[in-house]
Design goal:
- The chain is an all-alpha fold.
- Helices cover 63% and strands 2% of the residues.
- It is built from seven helices and two strands; from the N terminus they run H-H-H-E-H-H-H-E-H.
- The radius of gyration is 44 Å and the shape is elongated.
Length: 187
C-alpha cells in the first residue's frame, strides 16, 4: 500500500538511488501523517474547548447572576490590588532609594568621628578601634602598661613592640593621657 508520491519518486529516480528514494518517500509519508495528526489534535482541542465553554456557561446560568458578579468583581479587585502592590513594592525597592538621596557606599563622602581614648584606662577592644592598631597590638599596649606603669606622654608608646613613629603619628590625635593615680584622687 504505497502512496502515489512514493511511486512517483521511485519511478523518477534511477535504480541506483532506490534506497534513497525509499527513505525520501518514507519521510514524505511520515510528514503527511504527522501533519494530519496535528490537524486532528487541533480540531479536537478546539471542539473540546468549545464544549468546555458551553458547559461553563451552563453552570454560570445556574448560579444567580448577583452572586456570580460579586465573586467576579472581588477577584478582579484582588488581582488589581496584587498588581498595584507588586508595582509599588518594585518602585520602593528600586526607584525610591535613589530618589531619596541614597547612594552606594563608594559614592558617600567619608565622615570622621572624633573620639579620644584614654590610653591608661582603655581595654584592648577600645584600643583596637584606633587606626592601624589591631587586637594583638592593643593587647601588647595593655601588657606594657601593666608591666612598666602608665603612659605619661605619646612617646612612651614607642617602647611597645610594633609601634613606630608612623603609627604613633596616626594614633596621636585620638589619645588622651591621664594617670590612673590622678583619677583615683591619689597625687
Amino acid at each position: 500500500m504505497k502512496s502515489r508520491v512514493f511511486n512517483r519518486i521511485t519511478r523518477t529516480l534511477s535504480p541506483g538511488f532506490s534506497v534513497a528514494a525509499h527513505l525520501l518517500a518514507r519521510a514524505v509519508r511520515l510528514s503527511f501523517l504527522f501533519i494530519s495528526l496535528l490537524f486532528r489534535v487541533i480540531r479536537y482541542v478546539i471542539i473540546g474547548g468549545l464544549q468546555f465553554i458551553n458547559s461553563v456557561s451552563d453552570e454560570i446560568r445556574t448560579i444567580r447572576l448577583a452572586d456570580w458578579w460579586d465573586e467576579y468583581v472581588n477577584r478582579q479587585i484582588a488581582k488589581m490590588a496584587l498588581c498595584l502592590w507588586t508595582v509599588l513594592s518594585g518602585i520602593s525597592w528600586v526607584v525610591l532609594p535613589y530618589g531619596l538621596g541614597w547612594r552606594p557606599e563608594i559614592d558617600c563622602p567619608r565622615r570622621e568621628c572624633k573620639f579620644l581614648v584614654d590610653i591608661n584606662a582603655a581595654d584592648w577592644p577600645e584600643l583596637s578601634l584606633l587606626p592601624r592598631i589591631g587586637p594583638i597590638l592593643s593587647q601588647r599596649i595593655i601588657a606594657d602598661r601593666d608591666n612598666h606603669g602608665p603612659f605619661r606622654r605619646p612617646e612612651d608608646l614607642l617602647r611597645v613592640r610594633g609601634i613606630g613613629p608612623g603609627i604613633l603619628r596616626g594614633i596621636q590625635p585620638y589619645l588622651k593621657f591621664s594617670d590612673q593615680h590622678e583619677e583615683n584622687g591619689i597625687p
